[in-house]
UniProtKB/TrEMBL annotation:
SUPFAM superfamilies hit by this protein: alpha/beta-Hydrolases
Cited Pfam families: Abhydrolase_6
Record's protein name: Pimeloyl-ACP methyl ester carboxylesterase
Annotated transmembrane regions: none
Record domain AB hydrolase-1: where: 7-228
Length: 248
């Protein structure tokens, strides 16, 4: 590659850019160029379009890393020409035409569904939409297990909800069919069944997959390991893959 990729970290549902903070700090300390844009969680179509537009404004190659719902977002946004690789962190690696609900439905055993809250929100000129969030009291155990209690409490009351329509929207593209990928499975995940992660990564033929005995917010509990996978992906790309899909 002609330049070291800019690392773009994409957060998931029920979180915001701050969820990446420990990894962001580690990558910046190592001298990498990092961007952590907001994901508005209004729909998979809109969120992917927003991230793709953000990426396309970056001069040079980009490595996209997506956590949780952010994995679905990078799956679609990753078709941008300057994206050279994808890193899935406890994420959804959707196939083209597949929705979050369909992939999750293959392995439904998680603690998330029983602890969701549905709240209407106004839509200008249309019917109200529905926001989905994690019940605040359940958030530390379901979403932020392993995170220090005081941090989990803050994350619980500052979570960014995901609109309900996003669960049923099919992915319009699957960038992993053209771009190399890497993945982290959080084997102690109570938000997404780890089998969802394993299945999606295997189907995508990711270059390598690391299993960590970690909860869903692995970026908070194991930032060094997450940063190492991202920098390892950059090193592999620098060895001459130049964005073509790698197959393990």
């Amino acid at each position: 590659m002609s330049a070291t990729p800019t690392i773009v970290l994409v957060h998931g549902a029920f979180a915001d850019a701050a969820s990446w903070a420990p990894v962001t700090a580690a990558l910046l300390e190592q001298g990498h160029t990092v961007r952590v844009p907001p994901v508005y969680n209004r729909s998979l179509v809109e969120d992917a379009a927003s991230i793709r537009a953000f990426v396309e404004q970056i001069d040079g190659p980009v490595l996209l890393a997506g956590h949780s719902y952010g994995g679905a977002v990078i799956t679609v946004a990753g078709v941008a020409e300057n994206v050279v690789g994808l890193v899935y962190v406890s994420g959804y690696a959707l196939d083209e035409g597949e929705s979050l609900g369909q992939l999750q439905g293959r392995f439904p055993d998680s603690d998330l569904a029983a602890n969701l809250v549905y709240t209407p929100y106004p839509v200008a000129g249309g019917e109200p939409g529905t926001d989905v969030s994690v019940e605040i009291d359940a958030f530390p155990a379901v979403f932020a297990a392993g995170v220090p209690e005081e941090t989990a409490r803050v994350l619980a009351v500052s979570q960014r909800p995901l609109t309900a329509v996003a669960f049923g929207e099919p992915a319009s593209a699957a960038a992993w069919k053209q771009k190399p990928g890497w993945g982290i499975v959080s084997s102690a995940d109570h938000t997404i069944n780890p089998e969802v992660e394993r299945f999606g990564y295997a189907r995508a033929g990711l270059r390598s997959v690391v299993e960590i005995d970690a909860p869903h917010l692995v970026m908070q509990t194991h930032p060094a390991e997450v940063a190492a996978l991202i920098t390892g992906a950059i090193a592999e790309l620098a060895e001459g893959t130049d964005g073509e899909r790698l197959v393990s």
